[in-house]
Amino acid sequence: MDLNSVSTVVLEVLTQATSQDTAVLKPAEEQLKQWETQPGFYSVLLNIFTNHTLDVNVRWLAVLYFKNGIDRYWRRVAPHALSEEEKTTLRAGLITNFNEPVNQIATQISVLIAKVARVDCPRQWPELIPTLLESVKVQDDLRQHRALLTFYHVTKTLASKRLAADRKLFYDLASGIYSFACSLWNHHTDTFLQQICAGDEAAAINSLERTLLSLKVLRKLTVHGFVEPHRNVEVMGFLHVMFERLKQFLECSRSIRAENICRDRLEKTIILFTKVLLDFLDQHPFSFMPLIQRSLEFAVSYVFTEAGEGIVFERFIVQCMNLIKMIVKNYAYKPSKNVEDSSAETLEAHEIKTAFFTYPTLMEICRRLVTHYFLLTKEELTMWEEDPEGFTAEETGGDSWKYSLRPCIEVLFIDIFHEYNQTLTPVLLEMVHSLQGFPDMEDTNAILIKDAVYNAVGLAAYELFDSVDFDQWFKNQLLAELQVSHNRYKPIRRRVIWLIGQWISVKFKPDLRPVLYEAILNLLQDQDLVVKFLCIHLQSLLIFLNCCLPVDDFEFRTDQFLPYLESMFMLLFQLLQEVTQCDTKMHVLHVLSCVIERVNTQIQPYVGCLIQYLPLLWKQSEEHNMLRCAILTTLIHLVQGLGADSKNLYPFLLPVIQLSTDVSQPPHVYLLEDGLELWLVTLENSPCLTPELLRIFKNMSALLELSSENLKKCFKIINAYVFLSSSEFLQMYAADLCQSFCELLKDITTDGQVQVLKVM
After folding, report:
1. What region holds the Importin N-terminal domain (predicted)?
2. How many CB atoms lie within 10 A of CB 198?
3. pTM (2 decimals)?
């Protein structure tokens, strides 16, 4: 490809490829695809995306095609690999100027330089790092930033290489540039702090961006650049200095308004500080030992004392709690049962931890976690009132819940309580004893504190096994609290139900179950949806335990449950109709399925309403395949409970099986496994082979062609048809089956071939 003659043509085609008109776009994309393997094409792209006078969209597309080409054609062994001569020219062109004015394009250029560096640096591209180090020193703000951005992406990419030879090269690189990287970070950090004190916000934002990038470089060098970082004075010096810098940045955040753009970037930088510590602890626990004391003092001070008031923010609290948790749980810091088997480093780390976590410190952490962090917030209480289903989804582990502060708090409490349970058990029990009786209904704070303490007792259930007589507590206190109907007491009603769910697999006498069933029945009539949902959560847990635990541990007695079956089933069905979100409906259906499974045929008198409702729910859930999976599971248990009477469900049941097992229908990806199980169960409970059942067997041929993990289930379905009516079934499908089996025998394992022969 002649570079000069085709540049205009390539530019024109790239312009067409940015068009919204598919008639123009598609031919342009095809032409670009053909050019991908032509010599000189990437040199043309380089000239285009580095020409700042051209349209931004065209330049953006050019840099993307260049980046994709690196992935496909840069390595020597790749088909249609670029020539060494062209690669030399491209490498030189990429680092000639760091002056890209558009942020998004600058980032893409930095990423593609890093991709080339992953393959060629340092052997084929020894000048890259020296060029970057010189470029980050220049006074021009734009060039300095772009060079620093590229420096970060190159460092990040090289740090990710895992082969021993590559690791050695990165260790050498880190040793050579670490001092410079520290100086660069200190310079930009000092500049930022001076500018923020002087009130020069615009300049401070620019300096903060450079501080952030240089800290990102240091993070990769510190965590991945040294085999034994504790032996490097500069590394340990940087980590110790980082605590002082972190305090300075936290103090800065106090004076900057929350909505300020500088505040947002400042918080990102503060979080990056904590990530350096967490990554270093994770990768080098023994090298982290000199930092244990200081890390604990820092994190506990800001999270559990007044020092953090007005400064800390949620993500910072999460990071500090993670730091404490990682130190507490770190196996490298836990001596063996036989102390003589432990290393000197482990024993030293354990001594540092023991010296820090004194009784007053542990008591303050425990009390602060429970009476401050465990309290339901105004936002949570508002969500409870305005969106009870959304609140319930978060409480039971929804996607947003797992990224929030609350789970982090609870995990830290569990880990610390487990590690220091002998010290903390009396502290928690004293908090429980101080809350006996009923609080003033007008005292919202007292109610929330009680909720928080009960939460702690539930989370620590296994640790408190020998210290709490839960049966007595249930009879004397908790049962009465479930019966308090005052609206302001609903957090306690909800929490007590949850608390029982935590303890029921730890310590709860079987004789108390009828009392608990009665309480659940009453609370399922509660006006509050959240309380009702926690009840079905407990009901689900009860039934699950009944199914899974050995008789010695938990003997399920159907006679205890049957007096409540009708009312319980009707209330669950009403709740299924009441809720609107798919996740909530799925959970209610799960509980209904468990009930049907446990009582089996004794459910028959009560399922009429559910049978009438499921076709409507199936239709409403057309766009929600996971809800349809829950419906299929419910149908499986319904068919098993109804036995031969399940034939009355065929007008709804068979079309559901037909859709779920039709591989030409997109929903089969989600529904096939449950659909096959429902198909098999339907056949096993069918009194005879109906024409409709025969008709849906047409789906089987395509299923056998899949040769998937569902083959065994398919064989069982075929056997079921044979057992129901061999002559009628084989007369209709024998020829197709034989053909399918012959094809199958060519492609499956010996075990699979045996299974086919068994069916035949």
Report:
1. 28-100
2. 10
3. 0.85
